[in-house]
Amino acid sequence: MLHSSFGKGSADFGCSKVVHRAHLHDGLVEVAKRNGADVIIDSKVTKIDYQNVGQVKVTTQRGKKHSFDLLIGSDGISSVVRRTILPEVQSKPPTGNCAYRAIVPYDQIRKDPVAKDLINKLTMEVWMSDKSYTISYPISAGEDFNMVLSHHRPNPVNSVEEVDMQELRDTYRDYDPRIKRVVDMIPEAQRWPLMVTGPLNTWSSPSRNIVLIGDATHTMVNHMAQGAATSMEVRLSEIVLPLPNHGNVI
Ligand SMILES: Cc1cc2nc3c(=O)[nH]c(=O)nc-3n(C[C@H](O)[C@H](O)[C@H](O)COP(=O)(O)OP(=O)(O)OC[C@H]3O[C@@H](n4cnc5c(N)ncnc54)[C@H](O)[C@@H]3O)c2cc1C
């Protein structure tokens, strides 16, 4: 379905590539346009009519209306598409486990006499303690050190939160000195919830003019490291082929 070089955005691990989300989006847009798709951006969908009409009608926040034969809801964990066809489904954090997300430039780490040892190779690293862990890997073709710093809160976290940087640093103060040095370099971070959605009984509307893919239907915790891959690996042919008319697809 997709072939693109991803430009400067990929870090090569031999058998696989790690890309920054923004560069992946660039690649997807490039391929969509190459195949004749009309890409409409900055259009938050607020209303979907699908039950008593042949086509799915979508209204955006700005009041624009669009009609499609098939609506693919790939709108993430708070999916308006899922809320429309499966209003009873809720995404939930199963525990108080959540994660800081942060990026530090490799150049900055290379200049640090202690931390530079950590990045001799462009590899994925996991460091664990009993109540937290860090997962790090290169993105942007090895320009940036991407960190996911898991930890626990007394209560489940349901939305992205601003954080006190001192609290973040204190969480990892007993880690290896090289990790601590990198944590001290983090300029800013946010706390992210780690939610689970499903399993759902169905991923489509009864007349199959709407289907859900990605986090909208099977959000999973980050350390499974499969969310992004499974969002794209869904076999769209299985969804589209049974439809009588494969005209406009959003
Ligand atoms: C801390 C953390 C670390 C992770 N690490 C990994 C990892 O290492 N590997 C991995 O594979 N996965 C990882 N994941 C999971 C991965 O990020 C998700 O599974 C993946 O982004 C899901 O893609 P998606 O396209 O379904 O949803 P999203 O990436 O959430 O994209 C949804 C899109 O829909 C748009 N949208 C939402 N609502 C509307 C609306 N009403 N109208 C129009 N557009 C809308 C949003 O703006 C967004 O662009 C991680 C997740 C977290 C939280």
**How many helices?**
8
Mind describing the biggest β-sheet?
A: 6 strands, antiparallel
Give the second-level CATH assignment, the architecture of the largest domain. 2-Layer Sandwich
- Placed side by side, the strands forming the largest sheet appear as 8-9-10-7-12-11
- Unreliable segments (pLDDT under 50, ≥5 consecutive)? 1-9, 246-250
Number of domains: 2
Identify the overall geometry: elongated
Give the H and E element order: EEHEEEEHEHEEEEHHEEHHH
Which small-molecule species are bound to the chains here?
Answer: flavin-adenine dinucleotide
| CATH fold-level name of the largest domain | D-Amino Acid Oxidase, Chain A, domain 2
For the record, the CATH class of the largest domain is Alpha Beta
What does this 3D model show about the protein?
The protein has 250 residues and is of the alpha+beta class. It folds into 2 domains: 2-16 and 93-193, D-Amino Acid Oxidase, Chain A, domain 2 (2-Layer Sandwich); 40-91 and 196-238, FAD/NAD(P)-binding domain. It contains 8 helices and 13 strands. The protein has helices spanning 21-34, 80-85, 106-110, 165-171, 177-185, 215-218, 227-233, 236-240; strands spanning 10-12, 17-19, 45-49, 56-60, 65-68, 71-73, 97-105, 125-128, 133-139, 144-152, 161-162, 190-193, 210-212. The strands form 4 sheets. The chain has a 6-stranded antiparallel β-sheet with strand order 8-9-10-7-12-11. A 3-stranded antiparallel β-sheet has the order 3-4-5. A hairpin with a 4-residue loop joins strand 9 (133-139) and strand 10 (144-152). The longest helix has 14 residues, at 21-34. 22% of the residues are buried. The site of flavin-adenine dinucleotide has 20 residues, from strand 7, helix 6 and helix 7.
